[in-house]
């Protein structure tokens, strides 16, 4: 491993250049006593102007405290939150520079403009609003041209144009003017520097101070100043290239990179956390250099950058580098543990196997065998990593094996075995379905070749040493244990163990073969054998198994943790590195088992960047690097850069509620957290839009939401970036959102609290009104009932009083008749008075019964009245032996008060009594019921009829009927029938 710069000079270095940006790996590869380091293409995302829907040219980039990215686009300021692009209109519709200050305000410089972006508390726009500072310069004799840089330091803001530097502080602007022009501006460890081509460097700290000895940079066009060691800077200029300035002396860096920087017009740069540097040019993309200026990588449009014109490089909070280009934007991940070698490096097709031998990397693919010579690439003046095909591109190579005995490579391509040294290829023999090649570590110089039908052994002269043609299985893996036993895995025939002493008796080879099955594995699932610490481990569809010598069988292997012994885990690949860590592909995912003092620690988060089913081979090297053969090229994994392997590491990022809209239209919140919201009930349909400011593979971010107060559980994880809620009841609510990234790390939760007011008819004042109305209604009903009861009570009292008077009169008559009996000795007269007493007593009894019935409230119904009428008529007519017909309804659905009941009863009774006692009739017909919403009472008899006009009758009964009919408003008719008899008819509107 490189521990110092001095150490590096004693090492042979080589480089692998990637298409987008080259990733420095601090490890070294040890092969044939060589120490080498490799580079490959880091993850990269490109954004075209169709993606962000604006102009192609971008100039500067920054990030606010919440993680949202802002880009100075030639037409506006762009905002990107990981899910959506938005635009912010600025003065003159031109933005060239942008920066954030300590208060999280954003300052923007443009063409003829300078200002800031801010979001007020009441602003409901999703993007900040632009406020111009140009009016503050109206009384100054200075013109504003192109503002190329914005810098912030403490509470100061600086805007640089070539003819002036503007210092903004506490609402005031001070102007610094150059002697000729300010070429560039820099913010280096909180120092604001200006380069003046004809004078050197200046520092601005409320005034313009010349930096001593910087006049050595006169006429050198200083374009980039970056921190180096404490008190010194790395400077890139357009005349000499790279140098180190410590405030006193300049140390020129001798490097081929200088020619590139000068020729291609170096324009911008940043220092990476690993101590290396990126420099962007206007003509040929980016170069990556170390502290000594040695070229590590170059990335341009040839390697996949959208444009060779690099305007700005920005390192975000997640150690991603954003690149503002003359045509679009790019994001690269220089700190990622993953990088790639693929068709950008002339490595096409699916990579099936990998081997490293000396200074060569070999890749077996479905389109042939490819070789990358690292030393040749290193010796190129401008390296461009390219694999060299060793066979015709139509060849298919499926197995590689280092043959360390002769420092060669063995390869199986198109069913032919080859020996390879550097780029020299020698054909050994052609076979049929050659599947595997394996050098023996026990029997040195020998190697094994397995095909569909043969097991073969070759010696150090590459001569066939032994063949067993009865081994007709579809083999997929072969390992040699430290004790010399061979283990072979097959597609569908289990696993085979060949005893280590088989070399001693090849004639009895079959007697050394033992066959095993995994008890719980599916019959149609392959069994693969892996070499872990010199012992065979079997991977199956039911977890890991190991060999138990005592029972001579395969048993479930718990040495690697319960996760790997899980019968639900299907294990495809296992590879152990030099430190004893094991890399695994299982269950459509990838894991690493980290070797610890006791057992292994299971980890998988960092490896989730690998697509599930693409890895065909895992290759570990003594350096610690891990290479994976995939259908998209070679994946290089550097575990030293994987922070997820630290059990204490937690990814920190945030989800954000970005918009809240009512009924999907009206914006009521654009991410502000410092106010509460009360919504009218008719606005109880809300749409929440959200995002996560995490920029590594944002397309794989999933979200989970919950409306607290409305939902009990979190939603399922989805890629949706908005959620609609309808018909939210009144109440207090908190909307919550959280995100899960490609590593399954869960973000901080963001919230939005609000209240839905009740509809007006469920407000407190409405309920108060309801109480008053209901109370008044109940009181009114109570009063009405009391009044009705009092009225009924008075009516009953009056009825009882009237009947009492009548009963009293009757009783008085009885008393008089009794006295008359005592005074009249005539027996006949006495008999008459006795009869009168009897009649009067019956009359009194009847009146008393009427009193009791009239004042009984339980009889206040039509059913009781009609029933009483029916009984009275039938009893009376039957006692008189009069034939009768009653047509009386059983009930009438109309109100009936006590007074109406009393009058109807007495009218009915009087009519029936007249018909029974005075008409001399032998037939009577009575009808009592409703006819067209009117109550109709008819009493018809066949008696003697009326002997004179009705108005000449003034009997007590007739008079009573007329008076009562008049009191209840009834119409009354009395007449004789044509066939004789009398007919009463009374109708009453109900």
From TrEMBL:
Signal peptide as annotated in the record: 1-31
| One annotated Gene Ontology cellular component of this protein | membrane
Residue ranges constituting the Histidine kinase domain according to the UniProt record: 802-990
Keyword Kinase tagged: yes
Highest taxon of the lineage: Bacteria
> Which reaction(s) does the protein catalyse, per the Swiss-Prot or TrEMBL entry?
ATP + protein L-histidine = ADP + protein N-phospho-L-histidine
What are the alphabetically sorted keywords of the record?
ATP-binding, Kinase, Membrane, Nucleotide-binding, Phosphoprotein, Signal, Transferase, Transmembrane, Transmembrane helix, Two-component regulatory system
Record field: transmembrane: 764-781
- The question of whether DNA damage is a record keyword is answered with no
What is the enzyme's class at the highest EC level? Answer: transferase
Might you give the EC number(s) for this enzyme? Answer: 2.7.13.3
For this chain, one GO molecular function annotation is:
ATP binding
Under what name is this protein listed? histidine kinase
């Amino acid at each position: 491993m490189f521990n110092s710069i001095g150490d590096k000079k004693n090492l042979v270095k080589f480089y692998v250049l990637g298409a987008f940006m080259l990733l420095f790996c601090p490890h070294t590869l040890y092969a044939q006593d060589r120490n080498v380091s490799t580079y490959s293409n880091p993850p990269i995302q490109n954004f075209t102007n169709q993606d962000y829907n604006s102009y192609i040219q971008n100039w500067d980039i920054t990030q606010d405290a919440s993680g949202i990215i802002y880009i100075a686009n030639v037409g506006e300021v762009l905002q990107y939150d990981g899910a959506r692009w938005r635009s912010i209109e600025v003065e003159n519709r031109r933005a060239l520079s942008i920066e954030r200050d300590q208060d999280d305000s954003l300052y923007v410089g443009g063409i003829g403009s300078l200002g800031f972006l801010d979001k007020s508390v009441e602003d409901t726009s999703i993007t900040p609003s632009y406020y111009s500072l140009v009016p503050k310069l109206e009384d100054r004799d200075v013109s504003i041209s192109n503002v190329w840089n914005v810098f912030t330091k403490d509470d100061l803001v600086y805007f640089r144009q070539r003819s002036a530097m503007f210092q903004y502080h506490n609402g005031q602007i001070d102007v610094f003017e150059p002697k000729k022009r300010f070429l560039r501006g820099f913010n280096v460890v909180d120092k604001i520097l200006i380069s003046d081509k004809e004078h050197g460097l200046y520092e601005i700290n409320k005034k313009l101070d010349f930096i001593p000895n910087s006049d050595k940079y006169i006429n050198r066009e200083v374009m980039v100043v970056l921190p180096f060691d404490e008190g010194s800077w790395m400077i890139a200029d357009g005349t000499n290239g790279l140098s180190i300035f410590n405030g006193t002396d300049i140390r020129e860096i001798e490097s081929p990179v200088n020619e590139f920087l000068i020729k291609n017009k170096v324009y911008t740069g940043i220092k990476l956390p690993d101590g290396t540097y990126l420099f962007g040019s206007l003509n040929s993309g980016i170069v990556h250099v170390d502290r000594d200026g040695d070229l590590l990588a170059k990335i341009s449009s040839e390697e996949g950058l959208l444009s060779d014109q690099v305007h700005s490089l920005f390192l975000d909070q997640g150690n991603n580098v954003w690149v503002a280009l003359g045509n679009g934007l790019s994001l690269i991940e220089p700190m990622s543990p993953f990088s790639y070698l693929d068709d950008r490096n002339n490595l096409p097709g699916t990579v099936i196997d990998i081997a490293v031998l000396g200074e060569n990397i070999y890749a077996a693919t479905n389109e042939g065998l490819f070789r990358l010579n690292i030393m040749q690439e290193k010796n190129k003046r401008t390296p461009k990593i390219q694999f060299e095909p060793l066979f015709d591109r139509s060849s298919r190579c499926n197995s590689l094996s280092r043959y360390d005995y002769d420092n060669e490579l063995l390869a199986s391509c198109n069913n032919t075995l080859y020996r390879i040294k550097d780029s020299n290829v020698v054909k050994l023999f052609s076979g049929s379905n050659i599947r595997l090649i394996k050098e023996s570590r026990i029997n040195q110089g020998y190697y094994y070749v397995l095909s569909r039908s043969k097991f073969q052994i070759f010696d150090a002269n590459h001569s066939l040493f032994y063949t067993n043609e009865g081994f007709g299985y579809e083999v997929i893996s072969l390992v040699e244990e430290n004790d010399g036993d061979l283990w072979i895995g097959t597609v569908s025939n289990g696993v085979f163990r060949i005893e280590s002493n088989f070399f001693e008796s090849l004639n009895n080879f079959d007697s050394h073969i033992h066959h095993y099955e995994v008890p719980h594995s599916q019959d149609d699932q392959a069994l693969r054998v892996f070499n872990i610490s010199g012992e065979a481990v079997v991977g199956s569809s039911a977890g890991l198994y190991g060999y138990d010598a005592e029972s001579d069988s395969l048993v479930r292997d718990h040495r690697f943790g319960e996760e790997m012994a899980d019968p639900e885990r299907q294990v495809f690949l296992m590879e152990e590195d030099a430190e004893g860590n094991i890399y695994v592909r299982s269950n459509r995912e990838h894991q690493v088992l980290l070797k610890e003092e006791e057992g292994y620690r299971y980890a998988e988060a960092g490896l989730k960047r690998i697509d599930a089913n693409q890895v065909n081979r895992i290759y570990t090297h003594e350096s610690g690097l891990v290479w994976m053969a995939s259908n998209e090229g070679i994946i290089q994994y550097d575990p030293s850069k994987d922070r997820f392997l630290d059990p204490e590491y937690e990814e920190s990022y945030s989800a954000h509620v970005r918009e809240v809209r009512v009924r999907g239209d009206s914006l009521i919140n654009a991410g502000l957290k410092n106010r509460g919201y009360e919504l009218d009930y008719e606005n109880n349909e809300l749409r929440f839009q959200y995002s996560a400011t995490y920029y590594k593979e944002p397309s794989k971010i999933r979200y989970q939401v919950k409306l607290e107060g409305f939902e009990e559980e979190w939603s399922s994880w989805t890629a949706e970036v908005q959620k609609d809620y309808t018909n939210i009841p009144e109440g207090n609510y908190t909307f919550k959102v959280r995100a899960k990234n490609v590593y399954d790390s869960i973000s901080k939760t963001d919230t939005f609290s609000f209240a839905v007011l009740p509809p007006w008819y469920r407000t407190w004042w409405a309920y108060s009104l309801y109480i008053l109305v209901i109370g008044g209604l109940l009181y009114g009903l109570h009063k009405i009932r009391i009044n009705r009861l009092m009225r009924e009570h008075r009516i009953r009292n009056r009825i009882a009083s009237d009947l009492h008077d009548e009963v009293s009169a009757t009783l008085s008559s009885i008393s008089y008749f009794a006295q008359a009996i005592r005074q009249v000795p005539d027996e006949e007269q006495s008999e008459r008075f006795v009869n009168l007493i009897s009649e009067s007593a019956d009359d009194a009894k009847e009146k008393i019964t009427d009193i009791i019935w009239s004042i009984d409230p339980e009889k206040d119904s039509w059913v009781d009245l009609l029933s009483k009428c029916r009984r009275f008529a039938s009893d009376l007519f039957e006692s008189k032996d009069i034939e009768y017909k009653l047509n009386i309804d059983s009930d009438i659905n109309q109100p009936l008060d006590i007074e109406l009941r009393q009058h109807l009863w007495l009218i009915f009774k009087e009519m029936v009594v007249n018909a029974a006692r005075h008409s001399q009739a032998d037939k009577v017909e009575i009808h009592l019921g409703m006819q067209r919403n009117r109550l109709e009472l008819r009493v018809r008899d066949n008696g003697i009829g009326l002997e004179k006009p009705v108005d000449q009758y003034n009997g007590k009964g007739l008079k009573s009927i007329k008076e009562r009919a008049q009191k209840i408003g009834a119409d009354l008719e009395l007449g004789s029938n044509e066939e004789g008899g009398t007919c009463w008819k009374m109708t009453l509107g109900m």
